[in-house]
What does this fold into?
Amino acid sequence: MTVLDLRLEARVAAIGATAIAALSLLVVPTPVHAWQSAGPSPDGTHVDVTFSRDVAPILQENCQVCHQSGAIGPMSLMTYEDVRRYARRIARMVEARDMPPYQYDADVGIQDLKEDWRLSDEQIRTIVAWAEAGAPEGDPADLPAPVTWPDPAEFGLAERFGPPDLIVRSDPYDVPSVGQDRWWRPLVPTGLATDRCIKAIETKPSVVGRAVAHHANSDFRVAGERAGRLSEYALGKVGEIVPEGSCRKAPANSDVVFDIHYWPNGVEIEGDQVEVGIWLHPEGYEAEHDQTLTLYFLQGGRGYDIPPHGTLMTQGIHTWDTPVKLDSWQPHGHTRLVAMSIEILREDGRKEMVSMVSNWSALWHHSHIYEDDVAPLIDVGDKVILTAWYDNTENNRYNPDPDQWVGIGDRTADEMSHAWMAVTHLDRDSFEKLKAERAARLVSQRPDRDR
It folds into this structure.
């Protein structure tokens, strides 16, 4: 039995023994000490870690975009004085991989991801070493040059792709400061005169609306009929990138119907709007294959109840009629979801772990986008197994009330059990070609003695 098998067995046993509270802690960070990070200099002497030279560049690259005045972070991390007071807290958060907020196990399954927010082990060691050393400032002359940060109201993917080619805005909606969950489903024309292939998509609530927009899904409609999924947004998500050679179609003469879930939480907002920024390939762009984004259920029968102080595991098994390439995977649930995994059961009986999230947080949803050369290839007859674990006990730090029964539903107080997956639909020749290219690449990367 492999370490991974033992780990999964322990997770299932913990659920059965009502001990799922430990689930998100099963991957225990290895203690990191100052000497591990600082390391020796070329002459063998100890090298001190300072804020100005070592820590500030890490914060600038990974943290300051959110932790600055007017952004969503709860404190500013722009100056030494800002950061010093939170040094130990920052060290704890990065060592536990709670920050940056990208929940994805670092030692299970595929690790080559696009838009990966995780710090490297070396960066984590550096921050922890600095905090343990007393948070020294160092020489201010070593500070990196300041960054001109984009307006938080702008699209995040614009830095890579430029301004969106098309922006679809929902009709305004007034969100009360107090009340039950609200749903807003306006229909808005795209203005497209021809079919176009989408390069990337970003759904963006208003800056103030990010506090109350639980999710915002969008679909195309043509002549009143559903014509494919446009996008999905949930708290914390940035966007979706369609791989080169695949086409997620934006139809001509289409409308976009929004499904926006507002969750009043003390902030009254007048005329809130959600925007979907769409980057398009040029007219005439020819893609080899179509890509679709779909919600794949786990619960089977679409119904369950989690008892007070209880736990639950749900699963879903999915297949396709043609070969596919799995481009991205995004777990979805609410406050009782604590972990989710995705595996492939091959037709010959082999099982492969693709990805796992052991420290799920409903505050941050991510579309985990696989690098093109490692995106899983799934043949007809292969099965994708999605597994989710829920904790309705007081040990779940995000659980608002462990005394309540929790059932499936759309409200924030309810639960959901599904994953969003984007897949490129392949024909047999393309599937076999991709397999052969990957096999050849693996052979070429082996040492000469092993060929």
About this structure: The radius of gyration is 23 Å. Confidence is low (pLDDT under 50) at residues 1-46. Residues 151-287 form a domain with the Jelly Rolls fold (CATH 2.60.120.230).
